[in-house]
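Tokens in:
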């Protein structure tokens, strides 16, 4: 009898261990993400860059970026560069025997370009000592290396700095990055005659490098003033290939080097790079491949062959991989849809294989391979070749669905809704609105859980999480993304309020228990909801957000971008509008408990924006408010400790003021930190 009882206990323990558990903050903090995947020329294997968060066993800092090689048919990965490294942008050698990457190897102190052989030998630096590159490209024969690098300070300037003269002349002290041409065999370096500040680059043929450049090194110019240049490798001479009137996105050179495709704004006031263009090597006027009424957005680009361009496109909440004949301009039907493309796609040299980084509602980015038939159509379904987070198989997920509603003016608006785990019909749950930044950005119906986005962590703690793509969002064409211009906080925010009402009407959201969070422009929306619309929101968590549009214009590093694609009206001519759409104007009416968090070194949205709103609310003294600053962090947290602290504070704030069981008392100054998972060991070679 005793044996039978012990057996029953053991069986119950096994059953209990097998039950899925809701997503915890600690589980979320330990998730890896594939961020880049590049297929070898013959299509047989894929170079994969994985973002791996730090565990407590390796100290604080940013996540590691590791390189692995995975068979294109699937199978065990071989980690080529592991440990405490940070590498990016894999480039295959023509014979597939090696991969070049840029970054810092474990134990190295400098950023270099490295040759990583697949035979297991140690990585070898192929960029010069003393040059710190930010981007690179290699000719097909790997004989010429092109680098983007910022020059070192002149000797006279360095000597003055050694004497204590370390003052900075704002913006004028910035040094423009140069385009350097390196002979790999000899190490000889030549400087290309490229005006302005260099950014992205790629080889066409062995004689030509294509590069984007802006007139200065300011962030504002990198947003609004990039053009495409063609550089002759032999003498470094540069010629302007395409003058772009507004924002520049990405570009890709055809295999024969005769064409370049790129994404860019259709005009100066386009909030995003919504147009797709191509230009011949000889130059001339770019031809637009997207129709004027294109109701989507093109992201990553790759060439299947010299006439066929592959593009990862967004259409609202969905994405598809499409093929475009650049000679005739014809768009194919989708090669693959329902798979959410990431920031990169890659095609094999023979055009038989295309690789994408994709996420879904139940996993972050992974590498997927799509085989292509001879005519370019899909040969079967895309197959997943990486599983970076097997622990997610033991996680209980809240149901995630696309959601559409009608705005008060009749416009159809889209978003994503995540329901609580253990969802029950007839129960009304508290709601967390997660507003995206930009506003030239949008949510897709993929992985939505991050340190600053509640997602499945919120679902695990009993919340409905709502991700709205209000007017002004990307993914639905240029016209849709312009709908909020000169109307900051107006109809765009009404879209969110109407979405909340639509969810309440569905019967599973408690309209009296609504919170809001977001970063940057989403932080502005959070402050706007907590002030102007305070009666609608019971709690807010504001991150790197805007509180005073007048002082924002005077402290940001992107003032021209704000004027040309958002406001369209200058503050000196429309002072009253800027103030009317500023949360500080309505701070006196706020009753919403507001947690404000900000990187102490943020150049995009000055931390004084958070300080202003905090001080106004603190002096008023009628609602709970707390300001948390993160030293060393900018426009978003990058260190493990800052991200973990943020996630804990965010959920603690909502649990205090929004949850039915909340204490409605100010939380302790610091949260209770748990145990983060250790760094997973590298797979055996």
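Residues out:
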């Amino acid at each position: 009898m005793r044996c039978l009882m012990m057996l029953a206990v053991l069986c119950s323990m096994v059953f209990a261990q097998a039950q899925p558990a809701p997503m915890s903050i600690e589980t979320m903090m330990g998730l890896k993400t594939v961020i880049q995947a590049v297929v070898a020329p013959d299509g047989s294997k894929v170079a994969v860059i994985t973002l791996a968060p730090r565990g407590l066993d390796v100290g604080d800092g940013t996540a590691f970026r590791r390189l692995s090689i995975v068979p294109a048919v699937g199978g065990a990965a071989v980690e080529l560069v592991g440990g405490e490294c940070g590498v990016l942008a894999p480039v295959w050698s023509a014979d597939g025997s090696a991969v070049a990457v840029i970054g810092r190897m474990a134990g190295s102190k400098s950023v270099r370009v490295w040759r990583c052989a697949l035979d297991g030998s140690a990585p070898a630096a192929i960029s010069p000592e003393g040059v710190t590159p930010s981007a690179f490209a290699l000719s097909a024969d790997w004989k010429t290396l092109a680098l983007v690098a910022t020059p070192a300070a002149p000797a006279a300037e360095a000597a003055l700095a050694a004497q204590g003269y370390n003052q900075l002349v704002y913006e004028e002290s910035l040094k423009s990055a140069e385009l350097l041409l390196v002979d790999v065999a000899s190490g000889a370096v030549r400087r290309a005659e490229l005006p302005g500040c260099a950014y992205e680059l790629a080889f066409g043929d062995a004689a030509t490098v294509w590069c984007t450049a802006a007139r200065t090194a300011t962030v504002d110019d990198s947003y609004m003033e990039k053009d495409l240049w063609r550089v002759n490798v032999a003498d470094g001479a540069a010629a302007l290939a395409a003058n772009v009137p507004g924002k520049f996105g990405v570009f890709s050179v055809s295999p024969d080097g005769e064409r370049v495709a790129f994404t860019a704004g259709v005009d100066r006031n386009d909030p995003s790079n919504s147009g797709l263009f191509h230009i011949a090597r000889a130059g001339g006027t770019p031809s637009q491949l997207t129709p004027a009424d294109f109701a989507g957005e093109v992201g990553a680009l790759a060439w299947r062959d010299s006439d066929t361009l592959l593009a990862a496109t967004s259409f609202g909440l969905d994405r598809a991989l499409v093929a475009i004949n650049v000679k005739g301009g014809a768009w194919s039907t989708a090669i693959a849809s329902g798979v959410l493309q990431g920031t990169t796609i890659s095609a094999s040299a023979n055009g038989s294989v295309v690789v994408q980084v994709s996420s879904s509602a139940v996993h972050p980015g992974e590498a997927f391979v799509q085989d292509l038939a001879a005519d370019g159509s899909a040969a079967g379904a895309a197959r997943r070749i990486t599983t970076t987070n097997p622990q997610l198989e033991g996680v209980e997920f809240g149901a995630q669905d696309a959601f559409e509603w009608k705005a008060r003016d009749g416009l159809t608006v889209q978003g994503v809704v995540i329901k609580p785990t253990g969802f029950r019909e007839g129960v009304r749950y508290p709601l967390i609105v997660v507003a995206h930044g930009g506003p030239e950005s949008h949510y897709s119906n993929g992985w939505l859980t991050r340190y600053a986005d509640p997602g499945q962590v919120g679902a695990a703690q009993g919340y409905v999480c709502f991700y709205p793509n209000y007017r002004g969002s990307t993914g639905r064409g240029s016209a849709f993304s312009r709908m909020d211009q000169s109307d900051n906080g107006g109809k765009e925010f009404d879209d969110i309020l109407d979405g909340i009402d639509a969810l309440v009407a569905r019967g599973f959201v408690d309209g009296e228990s609504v919170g809001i969070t977001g970063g940057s422009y989403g932080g502005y929306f959070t402050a706007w909801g907590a002030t102007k619309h305070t009666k609608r929101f019971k709690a807010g968590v504001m991150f790197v957000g805007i509180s005073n549009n007048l002082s924002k214009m005077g402290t940001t590093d992107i003032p021209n971008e704000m004027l040309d694609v958002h406001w369209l009206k200058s503050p000196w001519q429309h002072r009253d509008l800027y103030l009317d759409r500023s949360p500080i104007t309505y701070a006196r009416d706020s009753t919403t408990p507001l947690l404000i968090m900000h990187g102490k070194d943020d150049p995009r949205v000055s931390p004084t924006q958070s300080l202003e709103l905090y001080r106004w609310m603190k002096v008023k003294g009628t609602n709970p408010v707390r300001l948390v600053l993160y030293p060393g962090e900018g426009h978003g947290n990058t260190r493990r400790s800052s991200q973990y602290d943020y996630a804990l504070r965010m959920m603690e704030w909502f649990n205090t003021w929004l949850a039915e069981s909340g204490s409605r008392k100010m939380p302790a100054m610091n949260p209770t930190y748990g145990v983060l998972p250790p760094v997973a060991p590298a797979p055996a070679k």
